[in-house]
Amino acid sequence: MDCAHGELANRFASIMKHRRNRMLRFFAALICICLIAAPLFSSAFILTHSRHAHDHLGPSGGCATCVSVKIAENLLKALGSMLIICALFLGGRNSFLGILNFDSSNLSLLSPVALKVRLNN
Ligand SMILES: [Zn+2]
Questions:
Q1: If you measure from the C-alpha of residue 71 to the centroid of ligand 1, how many angstroms do you get, rounded to a whole number?
Q2: pLDDT per residue over 67-89, tens digit each?
């Protein structure tokens, strides 16, 4: 009875891990698409509207297209800075863990079910 319960618990933990991995992959892909699409469309907007006809407010008076171009430029600067910081952080983290020879995939296996810890005493 205990053995069957343990197998069932292990099977449930395996299914939950598989689902969690699928969700993580989906959100990672979504973030990647956003990180590719935002600079792409911002650059395209800046390129297509760099020589536009200003509206009646003029370039220094708050022309709507000039304001949008400025926002797109700021977005590109922010994304560029963020990507550089993320690349440095992940590169540093991976090299640090590589020096320690640490396998982070083992962390997800550490659960009371996987370790077969009895919590009823
Ligand atoms: Zn303008």
A1: 13
A2: 899 999 999 999 999 989 999 99
Residue-range definition of the domain harbouring residue 97? 2-109
pTM exceeds 0.70, yes or no? no
How far, in Å, from the CA of 53 to the mean position of ligand 1? Answer: 6
pLDDT digits (tens, 9 = 90+) for 21-49: 999 999 999 999 998 999 999 999 999 99
Q: Distance between CA atoms of 60 and 72, rounded to whole angstroms? A: 17
Question: How many structural domains does the chain have?
Answer: 1
Distance in Å, CA 76 to ligand 1 centroid: 19
- Nearest residue to 69 via CA among 36, 43, 88, 37: 43
CA 58–ligand 1 middle distance (angstroms): 6
Question: How many angstroms does the Cα of residue 42 sit away from the middle of ligand 1?
Answer: 16
65 touches 49 (CB < 8 A): yes
